[in-house]
Design brief:
This protein is α/β, with parallel strands linked by helices. It is built from five helices and eleven strands. The strands form two sheets. Strands 3, 4, 5, 6, 7, 8, 9, 10 and 11 form a nine-stranded mixed β-sheet that branches.
Length: about 210
């Protein structure tokens, strides 16, 4: 077990085998739009970092997580319980959300999905390559779960932007806010944050680049 980390008012526990908490998850937690009493679902929630970070901004959220890995899902439940937060974490494949979650049941869906297609030669194992779900499958799950006018926020790689925009629109999610992230003016962007609206009108707001 790694040393617990403090995430705002909450204590976050993760195992040695969990994918480490990274800057991408922290950035996504600050980027996503939140409103009081919103129903939020994290697709691929791991040990539940976003399920702690988001209520750190808005304590009234209703929290749901979906995680395929059993030990990580159990840790996510433990993190919620030990921090006094109510929520449900499903040990399940996000590709099968239609079997256990309601259509349009969430105001906000979030995800820090695998970044790299299979065979891309990138490292990171199943947590970072699309061995278990593709970008299109993540967007399909989000499109099913998000209510009309609700939002889907995720973090991804800049080189996947075209594929991401295409996948979102195929599943009824209109890209509305985009922000690139880079280490400094001399570096190219290393990540992108994007929020789409279910059945939203066309029109993309490109925010100023976020410097790390």
């Amino acid at each position: 077990m790694r040393t617990p980390e403090r995430l705002g008012p909450y204590l976050y526990r993760q195992s040695d085998r969990s994918f480490p908490l990274g800057q991408d998850t922290l950035l996504l937690s600050r980027f996503a739009t939140l409103r009081r009493s919103w129903r939020v679902c994290d697709l691929g929630c791991g040990a539940g970092a976003l399920l702690l970070l988001l209520p750190g901004r808005e304590p009234s959220l209703s929290l749901t997580g979906v995680e395929l890995d059993g030990p990580d899902a159990a840790l996510a439940r433990q993190n919620l319980t030990e921090n006094g937060l109510a929520g449900t974490v499903h040990t399940a494949d996000l590709r099968q959300v239609r079997e256990f979650l309601p259509a349009g049941g969430f105001d906000l869906v979030v995800s820090n999905p695998p970044y790299f297609p299979q065979g891309a030669g990138a490292s990171g194992g199943a947590s970072r390559t699309e061995e278990r779900c593709t970008l299109a499958q993540v967007c399909a799950a989000a499109g099913y779960l998000t209510r009309s006018g609700g939002r889907f926020a995720l973090v991804h790689r800049p080189e996947r932007l075209c594929a991401l925009l295409d996948a979102l629109r195929q599943h009824g999610l209109e890209p509305k806010r985009l922000q690139l992230v880079q280490a400094g003016p001399e570096h190219p962007p290393s990540a992108l944050l994007l929020e789409a609206v279910r059945q939203g009108k066309p029109g993309l707001e490109v925010l100023p680049v976020r410097m790390l």
